[in-house]
Amino acid sequence: MKIIGYISTTIVLMVYAATLNGWALSKLWAWFIVSTFGLPALSIPAAIGLSLVVGYLTQTLKPDKDKKPYLETLVEGGVASTVKPLFALAFGAIVKAWL
């Protein structure tokens, strides 16, 4: 039964991370790309797709030298999935205020 919880949590975190990354990308795109280059704005679903494609093409998997418990890995992934796009948005907002 524990494995079903881990699988469900993993799926929910993946959807959450993809959605948050897409939302952040659509905001950053609107702030910088639309205003600078006059390109059309990205919808959140299009930004999610673009984020997934770029992540698929650029992500490299590192061998896991120290085996951590799966729950610890899930928590680290959830925190990283939240902090990375929010930090990018915060930094982007600072830069946008500069423009």
Set out the fold topology.
Elements: H1 2-37, H2 44-58, H3 70-98
Helix pairs in contact: 1-2, 1-3
Explain briefly what this protein structure is:
This protein is mainly α. The protein has three helices and no strands.
Low-confidence parts lasting 5 or more residues at pLDDT below 50? none
Query: What's the number of structural domains?
Result: 1
Q: Main beta sheet, described?
A: none
**How would you state the average pLDDT, rounded?**
90
The rounded distance between the terminal residues' Cα atoms is 53 Å
Number of helices: 3
Based on secondary structure, the structural category is mainly alpha
Radius of gyration: 16 Å
What do you see in this structure?
With 99 residues, the protein is mostly helical. It has one domain. Helices cover 81% and strands 0% of the residues. It is elongated.
Annotation keywords:
single chain, 99 residues, 81% helix, elongated
